[in-house]
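User: structure tokens for this one?
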Amino acid sequence: MTTVAQQAAGVARTVWQLDPAHTTVEFSVRHMMVARVRGRFTAVRGTVELDEQDVTRSVVEVAIDASTIDTGQPQRDAHLRSPDFLDVEHHPEIRFRSRRIEPLGEGRYRVVGDLTIRGVAREVALEVEETGRTRDPWGNDRIGYVARTAINRHDWGVSWNQLLEAGGVVVGDEVKIEIEGELMRAAAQQAA
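Assistant:
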């Protein structure tokens, strides 16, 4: 259903696109039990069908190109793309689709949905905060959000590890995720 058809039917949804040039998807995981390795994905796209009247009826969809993983170490990145971790040859995308949105007050939300990694979909909850709204110099409306969650990588079949001689493992189980997203509603869409 298009935005015009939605408005005619009494649904006040507008479609916002993630601006990939101003959106970051970052993660961190414990390395050798002593430090955190940080990384990011450099290619992300997504939409939010935003219902301003009732945010709980909004829908969020995001797709990440898994092959764009970047930790600053080419050898480690190649290993993370391999079947030991993301298996990007067989599973080129990481996807998220919201199931429900729960308002928490003061521009904060819990967005619950299915996160698909390596073809396995599991429910996750993201804590989301609106960081601001503005209109850019070209007439496009923009909204900023930050979203955070933590997952256990084993839930998606990402289980490779190696025991350390002194005890512990090379890679921690918990992966912390943070997304700084900038959404844009094109001026042309606003006119419609």
